[in-house]
């Protein structure tokens, strides 16, 4: 990548920290001068990993969090994921690493966006970005999990939340204009 003049790498997965050598990969990419960020579910982050990210002056960690409580998050992320994700987020924010949450809007959290933002504020997160769950893979056959809210109603709510909490957290959205509403 360096030899072909790439300057930016986004590490994502699955979960990048499943790799035991992820820190070494990040250090090497940093030494080569790449700008980079990483997307994680934060469940495998330890204090030691976060300290190493901090020592690398890692610019930002994007963490997937899809609910304000155990039930709403684990509905799509799987059992026993909420507490480890929250723990990882706390490690990041306590270390002073810029932390952005990515929240996918789906049927179980579509009316809880403000509660999710309030949790993010309580965790000292810097930014949250909302997007709709999209019908890909197995969801193409069974779209039961997809939000039924209209694009405009979600945009309006996120704009209202943004105004309400603008001094505490950056609130953004990446909502497709091509969202198909079934209501």
Structural summary, described in words:
The structure is a single chain. The chain is of the alpha/beta class and 183 residues long. The chain is 36% helix and 17% strand. It has a 6-stranded parallel sheet with strand order 1-2-3-4-5-6. The longest helix is centred in the C-terminal third of the chain and has 15 residues. 27% of the residues are buried.
Radius of gyration: 17 Å
Q: Count of DSSP E strands?
A: 6
What is the terminal-to-terminal distance?
46 Å
| Strand order in the largest sheet | 1-2-3-4-5-6
Helix proportion range: 25-40%
How does the major sheet shape up?
6 strands, parallel
Along the chain, the helix and strand elements come as EHEHEHHEHEHE
Coarse shape: globular
Class from helix and strand fractions: alpha/beta
Query: Which residues form runs of ≥5 with pLDDT under 50?
Result: 178-183
Q: Kindly state the mean pLDDT as a whole number?
A: 89
Give the DSSP E fraction (strand runs of 2 or more residues): 15-25%
Q: How many distinct helices? A: 6
Can you describe this structure in just a few lines?
With 183 residues, the protein is an alpha/beta fold.
Task: List the SSEs and their pairings.
Elements: E1 8-11, H1 22-31, E2 35-40, H2 47-55, E3 61-64, H3 70-77, H4 82-94, E4 99-105, H5 113-122, E5 127-132, H6 151-165, E6 170-173
Parallel strand pairs: 1-2, 2-3, 3-4, 4-5, 5-6
List keywords for this structure.
six-stranded parallel β-sheet, 183 residues, alpha/beta
